[in-house]
Amino acid sequence: MSKKRKRCYSGIGGQAVLEGVMMKNQDRYAVAVRKPDGSIEIKKEEYRGIWGNSKVTKLPFLRGIFSFLDSLVLGMSTLTWSAQFFEEEDSKEENRRTAKDQKPKKASDGSGEKAMMGATVAFSILMAVAIFIALPYFLSTLFSRYILNASLLAILEGVLRLLIFVGYVAAISAMKDIRRVYMYHGAEHKCINCIERGRELTVKNVRRSSRLHKRCGTSFLLFVMLVSVVLFLFIRVPNPAARLGLRILLVPVIAGISYELIRLAGRSDNLFVRIISAPGMWLQHLTTKEPDDSMIEVGIASVEAVFDWKAYLRENFGYEEDSDQ
Fold first, then answer.
1. pLDDT band at 236, cuts 50/70/90?
2. Which of 130, 111, 113, 15 is nearest to 70 (CA)?
């Protein structure tokens, strides 16, 4: 194995699911789940996105909007699929005895289920806009009698938005049931960091890799918060209702800009990138936890289902399979 430890972009990404990890590489994705009987179940499929391979989805700034919506749909689908194993485990005793031999139904089966998933995604977006866009705006208006400067009021709104977001992340991370999901989130990051640092994808190497990654969804959401502060500071309208409406209409623009920033962070490692990535990396201390070896094994299984890491290491790091590391 080559001794250099530069970072090299791999193109893979993923998320944690219930007792498992989803990894995506271009149009292919795999979900690996540790079932109640201790075995690892792997699902491999293609996902070309809601809009397929349209050229519009590849345009800078627009691609961030499509990517965000696709990640919500795919994330909800894989999370639902992973949860079915444990719904079976919690059912009646006779179902529990046969749960290890049963295959869960595909989350995408049936138009009714697709409609339900679409409604869930739409509701999630609506709630996010209400909590992180509308609520900070309304709270800031309570201070309008005391703060007459529009710029200071916009800054206050931004600070409130950041506080609400960080408080929400901290509250979620403190929940006992979420801890294992965050441990699998750590396993996902550690697997990607392992190969992007030129190391063989083994439990030992993954364990000593960082659980923080610049392309994390947590960092993306923090970029959304920070970009909104800057944008709302300079784009103003006098009417309060129109001001709120404009903030909502600008959400896709904010998502597009934030995506370009996270994309840059994933492909570069200069001083500027390290500075803008630092807040998101810090926040990941809340949204990731150190996984155990069994979780790392699940992460490795998910990577290997969609990504030839040995070929990647040979091409980018001069990897030789039989050589000592």
1. confident
2. 15
pLDDT in tens, 282-325: 999 999 999 999 999 999 999 999 999 999 999 999 888 754 44
Tokens of 59: 């345009």
**pLDDT score for 145:** 86
Find the distance separating the first CA and the last CA of the chain, reported in whole Å: 5
Q: What's the whole-model pTM score? A: 0.86
The pLDDT confidence band at residue 85, using thresholds 50, 70 and 90, is confident
Look-up of token digits 């894989």: 78
Q: Which residues of 207-243 are buried (b: 16+ CB within 10 A; e: fewer)?
A: eebebbbbbbbbbbbbbbbbbbbebbbeeeeeeeeeb
**Which residues are CB-contacts of 42 (< 8 A; sequence separation ≥ 6)?**
30, 31, 32, 33, 301, 302, 305
More confident residue, 87 or 161: 161
The percentage of residues in the chain with a pLDDT greater than 90, rounded to a whole number, is 69
User: What does residue 322 show for φ and ψ, rounded to 5 degrees?
Assistant: -90, -5
91, β-bridge pairs:
none
Which one has a higher pLDDT value, 113 or 120? 120
